[in-house]
């Protein structure tokens, strides 16, 4: 197994690998800050650069890098957007618990059915978003009080469990559900999704860290690049608004459909 450490980064033969991972982390942070889906970029890059590492180590290192970028995006959104904490916090709490439960469950149940159904679910999400031209363009919250908290817990718990069991498209699913069932616009939904994503990533990190599946030095250096991309992505989302987020959302979902379809039926 190729081992990364601080000294190895100055070795000429490993420096190109580091540059690729740094660039991948930056772009992943940018995309993830807006609509989620950064793992589409960062995970394949890690698999390519660390071909002999266990998948769990790849996922653990990816989560370590990603949580910093997601956290930075959540902080930046909170400064500039009126973040719906009354929905975000209950959803994040449920997501944390159920993500950990999902990570435990995945070791006891087959996930093939989830893998094969995912492209079709994502296709339905894309078609629904395309057909409804004004979907996510207006911020008009539908729920308050206990009803809002109940919906938040249900969505947070469900997506948190999915993230623990499987994971691809978690951020995009969160955005779609908060637009569809809460009446948020895409920008507000993206902001809330970051808070919830921090919770699911933290739950996964606890498990991966406990089981020794994180390359800490590499993950932390990638985290710096991920945060840089996250700051750029957040700035773009805030500058261009919900219309920009909607277009990027559809692009990422389209790539997810192709990627998950290939993994499920052709790989």
From TrEMBL:
Entry superkingdom: Bacteria
Supply the alphabetized keyword list. Answer: Cell membrane, Membrane, Transmembrane, Transmembrane helix, Transport
Cellular location(s): Cell membrane
GO CC annotation: plasma membrane
What InterPro entries does its record include? TM_pro_TauE-like, TSUP
Taken from the record, one Pfam family name reads TauE
| Membrane topology reported for the UniProt record | Multi-pass membrane protein
Regions that span the bilayer? 20-47, 59-78, 84-106, 150-179, 186-208, 214-232, 244-262
Family note: Belongs to the 4-toluene sulfonate uptake permease (TSUP) (TC 2.A.102) family.
Name of protein: Probable membrane transporter protein
